[in-house]
Structures are given as structure tokens and as C-alpha cells.
């Protein structure tokens, strides 16, 4: 009789330890590093960084992105979190491409019965080899349109710069709408 | 007597040179929107901090300046941090970002990157120059419209709200917010505000 109770108690404590372990440290953060297949977009253009929780189904974890971009540190919170087609929690962060480079890692902070626990991903980084001349030159710099062979080169560069600037103005407008709806209470 | 004086002179020269050689140079980069007239170097260590008068101030590209001064590394620990206070003609002041003396700062790394090489367009585009001219014209108009649209949203009231948020979140921008900033800077500033608002909301819930 006594041995049965002991076995039950041992089993129960094992289950309790197991479930606590599963909730706190058995899951990990994975990241699909995008810069092996894509180039860094022009500075300021949006990039999506995705973190996945392995061995967890929760989309409510406090996952954040620690980012050092061009030497400036910031903490980014996910834009959205959902269970993807593979039934894996996917947290999407929106950042803007750096001028020179950035380093980042994902982190989950949570409180449980054993206190606070922190789980971090590996550290990732991406850096440019040179600074785009669109950033190096003053944006409103007015240069006389050259004639002859330089003309084509100038016009192609100008067309590309304008394309980036239009995309950046559109992004600025998106961000402005996002901030205004937040402060006007529409996203409560 | 003459020999003694020569010896003393050589010795003092040697001491002077060796002490100069032991000194380490530090460069503090700073972005300014005014022309600097004077600067003071700042060294911050665990127990001591010193002010270095009249450091060298040199203009770099894109509004960046480098403030250079020397210090004796033996007097400080390896955790020594450096900054600079810069003053302009109209009493404007700016403080450079604090950097570790032994590691290159992010601005230094950024300034050391070369500008990307010019890529020549394919020669086949040569006979389509009028099409490219049209493309530039259309895109210029599109850019002006986008900027105008943004200016309308960023009216006085909105700008006041945004600047209040920047101040409240401690962003300390170097210039005031306006639709006339470069689109890159505008995105950077607005994304910092958006992120801080999101962080505030998340922590509040």
C-alpha cells in the first residue's frame, strides 16, 4: 500500500517537474536568417525578421527583438504572432534596413513558479561593405544635369534614387498612420 | 658646463618624447547641425573623470566632426569612456555619444566604410535616354506628391504630438521633426516613435 502511494507521489512529482520544465526551458527560439537569400535593402526600407518557438504552441509569449542598428540599441516588439501552416508559433518583427549594419537576437522573458526565466536565440548580424551613395550625398542636393556620356549615368542613378525615396515616403506614411492610430486610441 | 647643459637638454627631450609616445590618441565623432567654435574632451573612468581643453576639431562628411585628444592610458582603466562637449558661435552646445576609449565607436566604423562604387548603366540603355528622362520626370512628380501628402498629415498639431512623444521617450533627436527631413531620417524617427509606443502599450498591458 505504502509503496503504491510512494510510486504515485514520485510519478506526480515527475509530471509536475516535467510540465514546469516543458513550460520554461524546453522550448527554444529559432530564426530564419533571411540575408543568405536576400540582399540588405536600401537603408530605411522595411525588413521582416521572423522568430519561431520550438516545442511550444504559445503565441502569447513575451518575445522581443534586441537590435543594435548602426550602433544604436533598441528593443522591438512583434508586429504579429500566430501559428503558421506548420503549427509553429511565428513572431514577426518589422525593422528598417541599416546604413552600415546591425546585430540582433531574440529573447523571451517570462515569470513562472521558479522565478523569472530568460531564453535567448543565437546572435545574428549583417553588414554592408560600403555606404550607398544615396545616403552619402545630401538628399536635396541639386546637381546640374550633365551632358554627353555622363548624362545617361546621371539619369539612371537619379531614377533609382527617386524610386527608393518614393518607397521611403510610403513607409514614413505607414509609420505615421500606425503611430497616430495608436495615440488616438484606435489600436487599444 | 656646456656638456652638462647639452646632456640635460637631451634628457629632457627624451623624457618629453617618451611621455608623448606613451600618450594615446582618442577620436570622438559627433554629428552637429552648427559650426563648432570650441570643444572640450571628456574622459570618464571608475573613480576619476577629466576634462581635456582645446582638442582638435575636424570637419568630416555629412555634418560629422571628429574631436581628437590625447590621454595617458596608465592613469585610467581599460573601461575608460570618452565623450566631448562642443560649443557653437551662438552658444549652441552638443554632447558627443559616450564611447569606450579602447573600442572604435559605431560612428567611426560607419565613417570608415567607403561609398559604394558607381555602377555604369548598360550601354543598351543609350538609345532609350528619352524614356529614362520621362521616368525621372514621372518619379520626381510622384515624390513631390508623396512629400506633399506627408506634409498635410504632419501638420502643426501632429508634429507637436510627435515631438512630445520623442521627448517623453527620451529619444533626444538632433533636429526637429518635419516632413522636410530626408525620407531615410523620417522613417528612422517615426519607426523609433512607433516602436516606443508599442513597447509602452505592451508593458502597460
Short description:
By secondary structure, chain A is of the alpha+beta class. In chain A, 33% of the residues lie in helices and 31% in strands.
Report on the architecture of this protein.
The complex is a heterodimer of chains A (188) and B (205). With 188 residues, chain A is of the alpha+beta class. Chain A has 2 domains: 27-130, Immunoglobulin-like (Sandwich), CATH 2.60.40; 137-188, no CATH class. Chain A is 33% helix and 31% strand. Chain A is built from 3 helices and 9 strands. In chain A, strands 3, 4, 7, 8 and 9 form a 5-stranded antiparallel beta sheet that branches. In chain A, strands 1-2-6-5 form a 4-stranded antiparallel beta sheet, with no helix packed on it. The longest helix of chain A has 35 residues, at 149-183. Chain A is elongated, with a radius of gyration of 24 Å. Chain B is built from 5 helices and 8 strands, in the order H-E-E-E-E-E-E-E-E-H-H-H-H. Chain B has 2 domains: 22-105, Immunoglobulin-like, CATH 2.60.40; 126-204, no CATH class. Helices cover 43% and strands 23% of the residues of chain B. Chain B is of the alpha+beta class and 205 residues long. In chain B, strand 4 (56-59) and strand 5 (64-71) form a beta hairpin. Chain B is extended, with a radius of gyration of 25 Å. Chain B has helices spanning 2-22, 106-112, 129-153, 156-168, 183-204; strands at residues 24-31, 36-44, 49-53, 56-59, 64-71, 81-88, 93-95, 99-100. The chains are: A alpha+beta (188), B alpha+beta (205). Chains A and B meet through strand 4, helix 2 and helix 3 of A and helix 2, helix 3, helix 4 and helix 5 of B.
